[in-house]
Amino acid sequence: MGIFKSTLSAVRKGLGRTRDTMAAPLGSLLRGKQLDDAAVDEIETILLRADVGVSTTSSIISELRAAVKDGNLKRGEDAIDFLRVHLRDQFGDTDRSLANATTSPTVVLVAGVNGVGKTTSVAKITWSLMQEGRSVLVAAADTYRAAAVEQLGIWSERLGFDLVKGQDGADPAAVTYDATEAAVARGADVLLVDTAGRMHTEKGLMRQLNKIQSVIRKLIPDAPHEVLLVLDATQGQNALAQAKAFQETIDLTGIMLAKLDGTARGGIVLAIHDALDIPVKLVGLGERPEDIEPFDPDAFTQALFEE
Amino acid sequence: MFNALSDRFSKTFRNLSGRGRISEANVREAMEEIRQALLEADVNLDVVNGFCDRIQKEALGEEILQSLKPGQQMTHIVHQQLVELMGPVDSHVMLVDPPPTVIMLCGLQGTGKTTTCGKLAAYLKRNGRNTLVCAADLQRPAAVEQLRVVVEGVQTSGKGNAQVAFHGEPDKCAEYGTATGVAIGVCQRALKRARSERFDVLILDTAGRLHIDDDLMKELDGVRYALNPHQIYLVVDAMTGQDAVQSASAFNDRMAVDGVILTKLDSDTRGGAALSVKEVTGAPIKFIGVGEGHDALEEFHPERMAGRILGMGDVVSLVEKAQQEVDEEEAEAMAERLSKGQFTMNDFVKQIRSLRRMGPLKQIMGMIPGVGSAIKNLDGHEGQLDRLEAIVGSMTNNEREEATLLKSKSRVRRIARGSGASGPEVNKLLKQFEMIKKMSTQMAGMGMLGKMKAMKGMQGEDAMAGMEQLAGMSTRGSTKTTSVKKKFKKRKRR
User: B267, A113: Cβ pair inside 8 Å?
Assistant: First the structure.
């Protein structure tokens, strides 16, 4: 059983903007109309504008064209149905709930490049877990960025969770080790580790993530049970490179897609599913702790084509 | 920087240049590849379409079709168009009299506003401007504290003698959200302080906000009306996708942005945002952020950027960097000794050190024409440089001045023990030393172009070897560099 329960309507609400920008033109363009080349080109344009990416878009479009050629699709509605099923298939039926270790604590490692919203996401995840009555300990392992620890400290006061922190500039692996020890000793249900933002191209910093992972394993061999990459929904194709690099370093188990409340359409999610087998588990939709939703591919794809 | 895009262009144009004369079909084929490359680089779709139309029109002109070197011609056209798309630009911060000049930074969440504030303050400090930085982000937890730490760091370790001070009112954060205009009040008090304490510049670090968040955008309006900033800079993440244009133009419509600061260009992002933002908003890119340190802010130069995109390297930046780091007199003394064929271990280490002062090896190598794509995993070599210095550190003064002494096996053994290296490692260094000595003394008589050619020839070999040649160039570059700079200027004037 997963930690999060999926609520279709909430996702729809959250994805309202994605739907507005992506589905509205699709729907109004296609409904009741003949499905000709111009219409298919227009669909291609919409996918590209949504950051779906060249290669994923062309594979979607070529399948659409093939279906049109076979005579299966004639009108706009048919194309919408086809795309809805097709895009839904891209996501597969992976388990999207957060991992839950058989013996506590469940360790969740959170990583990502600079400025994607890791710390805010950690606060949100903690809030959700606390809503479920679980005890959460957070490790402030971002000892690099100025005041990152203070930032989490403020969240810990607001939400009332325990925080393990080291000095500014302390070894993040040491902080993580202390936190893991503390989580075991205090019998916490979940340990969340917030790491410093790092460019995926910086080999040294990526190795530091390895080290963080291995100190956790010294105390809990099968941890971390969940390794989340936080991606920024406004990012373009570089998010793929990030996912690949982090995947190679720390074996991601899931993605949290933050900042989906802007006008960015989050199409990169499709591209990532196309290229890598890492499930998107959570989406961030604002600055408040409760602005977090489970990622629901059905709702997501359905919402894309609703008006 | 921008590696992937330049790789792609190189490939496209290699294909073209292999064909002799160019046909209309060739051009269309190349256009399709360029279009795809630009889209993969996150250049906005409309910008891509406009760009490709212009290129195609030019490329199909009589001259190109008749040209014997269509690949080169095409590169030239694309380069020119890229430059036009991103420029022209004035990277200087306009200062007003009487001071203070008020600069306001704004942008989406997580684009790097606070870090950029520190970098901008460090830039102004280097240029002798006293700067007050105001924490107007009362929204994100600990943003005020973050800026305070950043500013303190700039004040204590930034280059230059000017003052950098921090204005923050952390206790106002609690009021934020309950009362409107709290941030405006903080900014007004900062301006008052900047006036009374005679700061040259006041920088306002505003909270990150969504361009569709009307309440927060109104707050930004409020700050703008209350303080009437002389310059409003939009901070844009270079990794942004298609949405870059949407958010940038929304901020621009509301705030009349004077310039853009493009951040996180030290990643491998193809940086399509750079191409998009200027064309769509009309606001020029003033600076680029290329790292986490407060010195990692560079002036934006469209010519150079276009050159990088096209895989033409960025020799001018490299030369400027070298000049910043190299002591003129020392360089001249060394150049003279080199021309006499004198080159010692001490010179060798000096060169490596001055090279390393210029920045991470990877970044420097990326600026050399034709090398960009050849080096992707240079990180390990930084460590090798440390070992190299350690080995030389274990030599006696006599050995450093007279490398022939090192033919003695017992000396090599001693050095290996002293530096924790193996005998073969020491011998390898000696060989590299001999090679670079030969190269450096030869190159002392060569012009810049000759050096570049010599370096390009080394591309396929051990990256260390290429690096060492670069070391040879960087220390002695000062006399020749001016000529390249002049050439560059001349070309611009024409």
Answer: yes
The beta-carbon neighbor of B149 closest among A49, A116, A147 is: A147
Residue B469 contacts residue B458 (beta carbons within 8 Å)? yes
Q: Give me the DSSP letters along chain A.
A: --SSPP-HHHHHHHTHHHIIIIIHHHHHHHTTSB--HHHHHHHHHHHHHTT--HHHHHHHHHHHHHHHHTTS--BHHHHHHHHHHHHHHHHTT---SPP--SSSPEEEEEE-STTS-HHHHHHHHHHHHHHTT--EEEEEE--SSTTHHHHHHHHHHHHT-EEEE--TT--HHHHHHHHHHHHHHHT-SEEEEEEPP--TT-HHHHHHHHHHHHHHHHHSTT--SEEEEEEETTB-THHHHHHHHHHHHH---EEEEE-TTSS---THHHHHHHH----EEEEE-SSSTT-EEE--HHHHHHHHT--
Global confidence as pTM: 0.77
Q: What is the pLDDT of residues B97-145, one digit of tens each?
A: 899 999 999 999 999 999 999 999 999 999 999 999 999 999 899 999 9
Structure tokens at B289: 């952020």
How many other CB atoms are there within 10 angstroms of residue A60's CB atom? Answer: 21
Nearest by CB: B210 against A201, A202, A262: A262
Q: Where are the domains of chain B?
A: 3-86, 101-309, 315-493
Q: Which residue has the tokens 């144009």?
A: B13
One of 1.10.260.30, 3.90.1280.10, 2.30.42.10, 3.40.30.10 is the CATH number of B315-493, namely: 1.10.260.30
**A205 → chain B, closest CA residue:** B379
Radius of gyration for the alpha carbons in chain B, expressed in angstroms and rounded? 26
Chain A CB contacts of B243 below 8 Å = 51, 234, 262-265
Q: What is the arrangement of strands in the sheet containing B164-167, beginning at the earlier edge strand?
A: B164-167, B131-136, B201-206, B101-106, B231-237, B259-263, B285-289, B297-299
pLDDT (tens digit, 9 = 90+) per residue, B22-56? 677 777 777 887 888 788 888 899 888 988 888 88
Interface residue A236 vs chain B (CB under 8 A): yes
| CATH placement of domain B101-309 | 3.40.50.300
Give me the interface pTM, i.e. the ipTM.
0.88
CA distances from A252 to A112, A142, A198, A249, A300 (A): 11, 19, 15, 8, 22
Q: Does A232 touch chain B (CB under 8 A)?
A: yes
Q: Do B264 and A155 touch (CB under 8 A)?
A: no
Query: What CATH number belongs to B3-86?
Result: 1.20.120.140
Contact at CB, A234 and B240, closer than 8 angstroms: yes
